[in-house]
Amino acid sequence: MGTVEGHHRFAVRGYSRLRALLAAGEYVRSAAFTVGGYDWAVVFYPRGATHADRDHAAVYVQLLTDRAAAAATFDLRFVRADSGRPLSVHPPLAAPRTFSTVLRSSSAAMYGVKVEAIQALQANYVRRDRLTIDCAVRVVGKPRVSAAAPLTAADVPPPDLAAHLGRLLDLKSHADVTFDVRGVQFAAHRVVLAMRSAVFAAELFGPMRNNAGGAIKVGDMQPAVFKVLLGFIYTDTLAAMDDLDADEDDRRELARHLLVAADRYDMGRLKLICADMLARSLTAQTVASTLALADRHGCRGLREACVEFVIAMGMNDEVVISRHPDQLNCISLFKYFFYQIGSLLKIH
């Protein structure tokens, strides 16, 4: 059977004042200390634990742990005022005492002893109005292991990095590069652009960077498209598109131009988002031009969505063929594919 031992020193300060203020049965208690997984305290009665013992001080060991039981021995000692040596105030215990707080009875939770007369105590152990008590507790048996209470999750606010970067763009704080998009000026930050796009990194920091100063001209893009592109670079959202007063057709057209811009600046995530927007807004009038766009910019998923749309609608080649000459090669490839699978699916 194992034993765990612990020690605690309790300094009772203002001894004379406590004797004057406290009556028999009233006590002072030390801070809690832990031995064997249980919390304990030293309890000192300056005028005795009962009225009958009011001429003798008393000192006890108390189990503080709620709803627990422990077998333990103890050794209570007063530190002599002249030598500083601790001397036991009771004979050694022959057997462990069973401390218990299960029934919430103070008598079961405390064991102690009546010590010598108050006058002798004061003469031998009180120095500078302070009495020092040493306590050794030995818990017999398996140590108690308390289940750790789960930590309460902190109420952490959602990430706001994108919001801060968005404000940085809107306020133009510390901007160090300007773009001229068909006469409209856009201020930005080189490091943010380079961080988000390898193409911007090469243009702004590579060997081909513009060292002449002044605004960087972007002539083959609409200002509205470049504004949405910048917003996505800073916030990873298309909130700037939502701010535009645009109907469904205008938003579809903007998504087409934004896909081209995403491909140009090697922004894969934005390119996929635009392709998904176009795939979800296909019509009989736009499927041919969208297929051509997907073919030019390597959007496999968008290309497959166009094929599935045509098959689902049961469209024939006259409906599919676009009037735009730059799409005829793409459409001819599509017609060949369509006729091949159409014979199997009995669409024609």
TrEMBL record:
Q: Gene3D superfamilies attached here?
A: Apoptosis, Tumor Necrosis Factor Receptor Associated Protein 2, Chain A (2.60.210.10), Potassium Channel Kv1.1, Chain A (3.30.710.10)
GO terms for biological process, alphabetical: protein ubiquitination
Q: Which domain of life is it from?
A: Eukaryota
Q: What is this protein called?
A: Uncharacterized protein
Write out the pathway annotation from the protein's UniProt entry.
Protein modification; protein ubiquitination
Q: Which Pfam families match?
A: BACK_BPM_SPOP, BTB, MATH_2
Q: Which CDD domains match?
A: MATH (cd00121)
InterPro entries named in the record = BACK_BPM_SPOP, BPM1-6, BTB/POZ_dom, MATH/TRAF_dom, SKP1/BTB/POZ_sf, TRAF-like
Report the coiled-coil segments. Answer: none
- Similarity section: Belongs to the Tdpoz family.
| Residues in BTB domain copies | 175-242
Query: Which residue ranges does the record assign to the MATH domain?
Result: 5-137
